[in-house]
Amino acid sequence: MEYLTPQHPNVDWASPMEWLRINREGYRGQWVGLDSGRLVAHGSDAFEVFAAVRAEGISLPFVTFIPEAAKESWAQVFSFL
User: What does the pLDDT look like over 46-81, one tens digit per residue?
Assistant: First the structure.
């Protein structure tokens, strides 16, 4: 399955991806809410993370779940699925 980066002219999606690459080990098994490259909220409950991000006034947050163990493909690329 192919996932496409959401397209929006005013959003920087590269910064959250870079944050995930650098910091994901410390947040395994949690939801994280990012505003560009800044961690806004994290926890085990997606609704709480979304609420915290929205409370910050972020209109297009980057929210994702980081699984306990990343899957590795043949190309040594990690997937967050």
Answer: 999 999 999 999 888 889 999 987 554 444 444 444
Cross-sheet strand order for the sheet of 62-66: 38-43, 30-35, 62-66
| DSSP assignment of 6-36 | PP-TT---HHHHHHHHHHGGGGTTEEEEEET
For residues 67 and 57, give the distance between their C-alpha atoms in angstroms, rounded to a whole number: 27
Q: Please tell me the distance from the alpha carbon of residue 69 to that of residue 81, in angstroms, as a whole number.
A: 9
Distances (CA, A) of 48 to 42, 43, 45, 66, 77: 8, 8, 5, 15, 30
Give CA–CA dist 81/46, Å, rounded: 16
pTM comes to 0.70
How far apart CA 15 and CA 45 sit, in angstroms, is 23
Residue indicated by tokens 């980057």: 62
